[in-house]
Each structure stands twice: as C-alpha cells, then as structure tokens.
C-alpha cells in the first residue's frame, strides 16, 4: 500500500518546464541578460534587466522594464502596462491628435497666457517631441512615459561623460508632460492622465555654495578689473534678483524717490516692486550716467567665469557642484540677511518665494551663526 502511494506521488508530481517561452507564459516578469532568461543564482543576475511576458486576449506583451529595480516594481509596471494595453481608458474619442499638434494648438497658448517660463518650456517641448515624435496623444501609456524618462536619464552630454540632465530637470520635463495631459483631459481627448502612475525621480539635497573670506577678497580684486561686471555683481549681492531680471532693468523701471525698482516677474509670476538700498542706488545712478542700462553685456558668461577662475575659485572642467555660479549670489544675499537677524518672512517676501521651505534652501543658517546663538544663552545667564 505504501509502495503504491509512493508511486502515485511520483506519477502526479508536477512536470518541470524546460522551454523558456512556456515558462514565461506562467511567469509574467523575469530577468533577462544578453538575450537569455537568468535566475537569481546567475553571476550576472544584478546586471540583468526585468522583462514582462504576458499573453492576454490573444495578444502578447513582451518588453523590458528598464526602470524596475526589484520584482515588486516590475510587477507594478506589469499591471500598469496591461491596463494601458487592454483597458482603453486613456483613449476616449480622439485617436488622431498627435502630441505635437496638441502642444501647438493648446499647450503653447496656455504658456503664453499664463506667463510661464517660455524659454524653459520650449526646451522641454523639444526634448519630449524628440522622443514621442508623431505619436498620437491617446496612445501614450504610463510605460511610454517611464521609457521617455529613462531616455532622458541616459541622454549624454557631448562634452562630458555624465548625463546632461539632473533628476530635478527631468522631473520638471515630466511635470510639463503631465500638464499637457491634464489639458488634454480638460479638452475631452483623454479620460485620465497617464503621468499619474509615474513617480518623480528622487532629487539630491539642494546645492549650497558660499565663499570664504579669502575667496571673496580674491574675487573682488578680479571684478575691479571689469567695471561693468563689477557693477552687476554689486547689484546681485544687494538685490534679490536673478541674472535675467538684473540685466533687464532699465531707467524707466527705477523709482529713486521711493527707493524701489520694478522687476519683471519670472516663473509665471507678475511684476513686483523691490526696495533698493544706498549701495544699489549709487551703482544704478552711475550706470545711467554711463548709459549702461539695460546691461550691454553680450559675453557675460565668459567674463564672469574668467574672473572666477583667475580668483582660484572655479577650475576649468570642474563639476557643477564644485564650481561657483551666478545664482549662488542669491544664497549669499539671503544668508547675509539672515545673519543680520532679518525676519525670515521678510526674506521670503523679498525673494518672492511661494513657500517658506524654498527660502530656507537659499538661506540656511551657517555654523558660525548657530554658535553665536547658543553663546548668547551664556551671556543672558551671566546677566
């Protein structure tokens, strides 16, 4: 009896599947390396890429999932791919409108009407259309969006080995794509936004670069050799403005009597009035006398970075994190205001930040200021 039972168990044991295609029918996601399926024991398993193989409703889905880092992420992508392929919830009525034509007809007018950063948006559009080309907007799935993001991540700078686009830049590009889809939903072309299933890339902590006292002295010595550049930097460390806003100032924008200057809005914001101190007033008056407004600097970038290199601050071929940039002057200005115990709310209003968390990026408290704060407790106790 025992022998018969043992034989029955052997007869009914599951038959191993040796054919990869047959195995793939039952296992939706798997890892593949150099054209072959690999198991977790394979020496190159960590280098292998996740793939999906699925038969549904007479269709075969067989594609890679390059952004998946583990099986859970691969299975999540699988569910979204299947939904996009077989549940035509994205394709409502319009199957002919291309992404390019929708951008021309709806998104570009939206950018014009809402005073959004036009230069940046045009760059994002060019990169997006470079990937999607003439694809219809209703045919774009969440996985297509992920593949586009992966392509942007691997986009190489011709002069450098590393990727040309940072995670923050890629997130802004994908955010633009999401806004385009939102407008398509409003127009009835799409029912849902495919980007709602795509996570943003993690971004590194905000970059903060401040100069020490010696670097400041060396830089000012170099700037004194170039009067126009020197005046521009003086204004940059006395006004909470971006380079483009500084270089757009004209005599008509300045109200010396009320000590303020009209600033053209950026990032979709309206124009605003910014106070000017005595240092900025003196520089602006000198520039008006010398007919230097708006700034007639065509080769600003070359002159600015030459001064930084001559001062020993920047190195030729240095990385973005290592080198000092014009935008870092905003951090300096904000830090100086905080150092002088300026109310953070005033700093936020000066910089036109929509949220206080943005202000803290530019005006992080430095170590010396924190030391002075705790030492103040000692003085208070002694009193």
Explain what this protein looks like in three dimensions:
This protein has 383 residues and is of the alpha+beta class. It has 3 domains: 16-86, no CATH class; 99-197, Orthogonal Bundle (DNA polymerase, domain 1), CATH 1.10.150; 213-378, hpI Integrase, Chain A, CATH 1.10.443.10. The chain contains 16 helices and 7 strands. The strands form 2 sheets. A 4-stranded antiparallel beta sheet has the order 2-1-3-4. It has a 3-stranded antiparallel beta sheet with strand order 5-6-7, with no helix packed on it. Helix 4 (99-113) runs antiparallel to helix 5 (118-132) and helix 4 packs across helix 7. The longest helix has 20 residues, at 167-186.
Give the SSE map.
Elements lengths: L1 H10 L8 H7 L2 E5 L2 E3 L10 E8 L2 E6 L6 H16 L12 H15 L4 H15 L9 H12 L13 H20 L26 H11 L3 H10 L6 H5 L6 E2 L4 E4 L8 E4 L2 H12 L10 H11 L17 H12 L4 H8 L4 H7 L4 H16 L1
Antiparallel strand pairs: 1-2, 1-3, 3-4, 5-6, 6-7
Average pLDDT over all residues: 80
The CATH class designation of the largest domain is Mainly Alpha
CATH topology heading of the largest domain:
hpI Integrase, Chain A
User: For the record, what is the CATH homologous superfamily label of the largest domain?
Assistant: Intergrase catalytic core
The spatial strand order of the largest sheet comes to: 2-1-3-4
* Count of the domains: 3
Q: Describe the biggest sheet?
A: 4 strands, antiparallel
List how many beta strands DSSP finds: 7
């Amino acid at each position: 009896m025992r022998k018969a039972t043992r034989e029955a168990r052997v007869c009914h044991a599951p038959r191993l599947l040796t054919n990869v295609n047959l195995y793939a029918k039952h296992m939706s996601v798997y890892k593949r390396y150099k054209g072959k399926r690999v198991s977790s024991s394979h020496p190159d398993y960590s280098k292998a890429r996740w793939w999906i193989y699925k038969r549904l409703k007479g269709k075969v889905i067989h594609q890679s999932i390059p952004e998946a880092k583990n099986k859970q992420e691969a299975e999540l992508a699988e569910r979204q791919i299947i939904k996009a392929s077989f549940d035509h919830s994205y394709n409502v009525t319009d199957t002919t409108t291309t992404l390019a034509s929708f951008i021309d007809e709806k998104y570009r007018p939206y950018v014009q009407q809402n005073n959004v950063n036009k230069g940046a948006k045009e760059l994002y559009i060019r990169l997006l259309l470079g990937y999607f080309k003439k694809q219809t907007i209703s045919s774009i799935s969440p996985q297509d969006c992920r593949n586009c993001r992966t392509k942007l991540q691997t986009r190489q700078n011709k002069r450098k080995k590393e990727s040309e686009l940072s995670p923050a830049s890629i997130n802004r590009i994908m955010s633009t794509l999401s806004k385009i889809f939102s407008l398509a939903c409003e127009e009835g072309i799409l029912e849902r936004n495919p980007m709602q299933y795509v996570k943003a890339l993690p971004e590194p902590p905000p970059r903060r670069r401040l100069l020490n006292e010696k670097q400041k002295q060396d830089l000012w010595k170099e700037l004194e050799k170039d009067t126009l550049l020197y005046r521009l930097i003086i204004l940059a460390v006395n006004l909470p403005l971006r380079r483009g806003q500084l270089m757009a100032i004209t005599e008509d924008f300045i109200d010396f009597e009320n000590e303020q200057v009209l600033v053209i809005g950026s990032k979709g914001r309206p124009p605003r009035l910014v106070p000017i101190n005595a240092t900025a007033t003196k520089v602006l008056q000198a520039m008006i006398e010398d007919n230097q407004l708006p700034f007639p600097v065509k080769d600003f970038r070359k002159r600015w970075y030459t001064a930084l290199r001559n001062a020993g601050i920047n190195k030729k071929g240095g990385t973005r994190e290592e080198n000092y940039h014009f935008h870092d002057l905003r951090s300096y200005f904000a830090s100086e205001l905080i150092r002088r115990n300026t109310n953070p709310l005033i700093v936020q209003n000066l910089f036109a930040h929509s949220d206080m968390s943005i202000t803290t990026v530019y005006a992080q408290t430095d170590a010396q200021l924190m030391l002075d704060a705790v030492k103040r407790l000692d003085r208070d106790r002694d009193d």
